[in-house]
Amino acid sequence: MDKFGGLWGWVPFWSVLLLSSGLGVMPQAQGWSKEGHIMTCQIAQALLEPEAAEAVHNLLPHYVNGNLSALCVWPDQIRHWYRYRWTSPLHFIDTLDDACTFEYSRDCHDSHGLKNMCVAGAIQNFTSQLLHYREGTGDRRYNMTEALLFLSHFMGDIHQPLHVGFTTDEGGNTIELRWFRHKSNLHHVWDREIIQTALADYYDKDIDLLLQDIEGNYTDGIWSDDVSSWKQCNDLSSCINRWAAESINIACKWGYKGVEAGETLADDYFNSRMPYVMKRIAQGGVRLAMILNQIFGDPEEGFSAAT
Ligand SMILES: [Zn+2]
User: Fold this and answer.
1) Residue 128 maps to which CATH number?
2) What is the mean pLDDT of residues 33-43?
3) For residue 98, how far is its CA from the centre of ligand 1 (angstroms)?
4) Phi/psi at 261 (nearest 5 deg)?
5) Does residue 254 carry a pLDDT above 70?
6) If you measure from the C-alpha of residue 2 to the centroid of ligand 1, how many angstroms do you get, rounded to a whole number?
7) Per-residue model confidence (pLDDT) at position 168
8) If you measure from the C-alpha of residue 89 to the centroid of ligand 1, how many angstroms do you get, rounded to a whole number?
9) pLDDT band at residue 304 using 50, 70 and 90 as cut-offs
10) Which of 25, 29, 112 is nearest to 70 (CA)?
11) pLDDT at 30
12) Cα(88) to centroid of ligand 1, in Å?
């Protein structure tokens, strides 16, 4: 069945004549913190079926020993490099202020109005590129390794609620406040602070322990009945739109609501928002696995590339 087929005709095949030689790193955190992206990718990789696991293994540079999560933060590290500057708007969506909705045609563009240049468009685009992997001819228009890393990263970003935020405050970046005793802003609270505080307070700063808790929640815990609906997807573009809409909905109800610039956020905010952060990381991972399994799985059951 050509589940997601027929959607790709319009996708702009952005010039992705990118080389794999430059997978270097530079410390910088934008998007889910490093930990958020690592957990998203570890969850996904553990859920891959054999064909997808093998394809991912083949696409990764040998120095990561088959560990996708080791490079899931790479798109944040290179987004300001001259060659990759075009990818910078692909990490987020600026929605209409206070609308609390996502509409692809209204909201998915960069600051110059260029269409499809947002995280929802990027997920479509890189999925589309990876569909050519199966053709086995090594389509030279695309760098499949980079497409895998971008897709894996952006599936994390679209699930970070404040990455689908309001335009004027840049997804909470301009809302400066304090997180407990230090200066922060609302965007960073959701990227990083909640995860860091959870790690420090409950997990002895051990990301593996936090990950075990998250995995326990969806395999045999509070979310185990929900997982099949999380990965339900008959039409990729409408699924992506739904995931973005979930994010702005959480951003409105739990991110922005009641928050004033200059205030201090502490225990109350942390305790009530932490479950949403953990759930979004789990959903991002489960859905990334779903997409990769579709891309690399049996062509009769998955979706196929546009010709
Ligand atoms: Zn990002």
Assistant:
1) 1.10.575.10
2) 95
3) 23
4) -55, 140
5) yes
6) 30
7) 97
8) 9
9) low
10) 25
11) 55
12) 8
CA of 9 to the centre of ligand 1 (A): 26
Side chain identity at residue 165, one-letter code: G
Query: How many angstroms does the Cα of residue 72 sit away from the middle of ligand 1?
Result: 9
Residue 146 CA, ligand 1 centroid: distance in Å: 14
Does residue 7 lie within any of the structural domains? no
Listed residues: CB within 5 A of ion ligand 1:
31, 76, 91, 157
Measured in angstroms, how far is the CA atom of residue 75 from the centroid of ligand 1?
6
User: Does some domain include residue 306?
Assistant: no
pLDDT for residue 303: 62
- Tell me the CA–centroid distance for residue 204 and ligand 1, in Å: 26
Whole-number Å distance, alpha carbon 173 to ligand 1 midpoint, is 14
Question: pLDDT tens digits, residue range 98-142?
Answer: 999 999 999 999 999 999 999 999 999 999 999 998 877 555 668
Which pTM value belongs to this model? 0.89
Residue-range definition of the domain harbouring residue 180: 30-296
CA 125 to each of CA 16, 30, 98, 151, 182: distance values in angstroms, whole numbers, following the listed order: 11, 21, 28, 9, 39
Q: How far does the centroid of ligand 1 lie from the alpha carbon of residue 157, in Å?
A: 5
Asked whether residue 2 carries a pLDDT value surpassing 90, the answer given is no
CB 265 within 8 A of CB 24: no
Q: Is residue 15 assigned to a domain?
A: no
Q: What distances in angstroms separate CA 254 from CA 144, 169, 225, 273, 295, one per listed residue?
A: 37, 16, 23, 7, 34
> In this predicted structure, what is the pLDDT of residue 302?
65
Q: What's the number of domains the chain is made of?
A: 1
Fill in the amino acid letter for 226: D
Q: Is residue 94 part of a domain?
A: yes
